[in-house]
Write a structure and sequence with these properties.
2 domains, Aspartate Aminotransferase, domain 2, about 475 residues, Aspartate Aminotransferase, domain 1, 19 helices, alpha/beta, single chain
Amino acid sequence: MSEVKLYSGEKLPLEMHKVRVVQKLNLLPVEARQKAMAEAGNNTFLLRNEDVYLDMLTDSGVNAMSDQAVASMMVADDSYAGSATYYRLEKKVCELFGTSYFLPAHQGRACESILASSFVKPGDVVPMNFHFTTAKAHITRVGGRVEELVSDAGLEPESDLPFKGNIDLDKLRECITRNGKENIPFVRLEAGTNLIGGQPFSLENMTATAKLAHDNGIMVVLDASLLQDNLHFIKVREAACKNMSIREITRAVCANADIIYFSARKLGFARGGGMAMNDRAYYEKMKDFIPLFEGFLTYGGMSVREMEAMTVGLEETMDESVISQGPQFIEFMVAELQKRGVPVVTPAGGLGCHINARKFLSHVDDHAYPAAALASALYIASGVRGMERGTLSEQREPDGTEPIASMELLRLALPRRVFTMSQVLYAVDRISWLYENRHLIGGLNFVEEPATLRFFFGRLEPIGDWQEQLVAKFRKDLGESL
Ligand code: F0G
């Protein structure tokens, strides 16, 4: 896109691909959407996809694949042990990341489970820029805890800071002194920091963080699940990297990490995951968990077809015209919402567009889950399925108190190369209608609250009859429209 200038002067993300396979979608009437949302316990995870028009729940495992990736699935070498497909994947990962060893796993959280079991002991602390739900759950599962050291400015929903995922080095220094380096098994750095709005770290900050950790003898673990967006942002926002290729930036980022793990449901346009490293001792320490929990060392729980497609997808990730599509669509959506006054996280990050639900629904109490209420309201108003990323996604403290999330966001993921511009504009239109009618939206209460990862299966009910009122207003304003 950067190379195409429109005569009109408008800024329009331009797709460097064309659509060759499509999936039919349904858009239910608003009354049916209200019923489906009630049946799903006001939890968008519990909706049936056939009742969803635009599935913006996540980018995980639902990115569009290229013709080359799909075609490669047909030449995958079907074998339990020693598959040629596996060796092609291992070679590609090691070539791109500059590592010597690879361990396959069925998805990202499997890597997190193995990392926690291998390195974290009760009482340990894992500093990180920001937690991700499954990463934190696995660290606490083995008796550790996390400290979030992202710079304070990274938590301001609206800002113009280019790298809101950066670690605050003073906080890291203080954390090491206070906890003692012997109690810190590793520092975890998350690329494209998910829960704060898909915000990147800079190569400069990552390099300084790694130096500080290594000076203290502490290992650095990179969660590269959202690396592709972060690579794009380093290329376009970090002056010192402007002339580096994506391949060079990838190598430079990865050179700072001792272990790199990723969810290939995000990175590589496929489904799967794995861990890469240079130190044989780390490889040996984790290796035995693979056949125990994942699968034999040459597939780790993945199908050979996915591994073959991932090998192609990882190579495509080195193409700036491929990886810029996601961030550019997100930037467009964020700008359109801003024009209409809707509070969104800025600057636009990766993964999706993030609405600041705490500001959107400032009249809804944090304990009544504004972001979950907004997710429910948006589905009713539009058939668009988003994901709550706020207090509901937090875990309760051991004493039962509910921590309030530092950010209360409704995430609208834009899986890569999946939606069209008119679909994005439809979502923008319905969100701005909701914003005009935000006073009608109320909170939610739990009726079933699971003890772990409660956001996946928890069921909630609306406080009062706000959903009936919302449907009535929809009919009044939009007539017979779907
Ligand atoms: N790390 C990050 C940064 C993630 O975003 C995810 C998943 C994982 C690890 C775990 O990977 O799903 O393959 O087990 N994020 C998905 C999401 C679930 O919707 O954001 P996984």
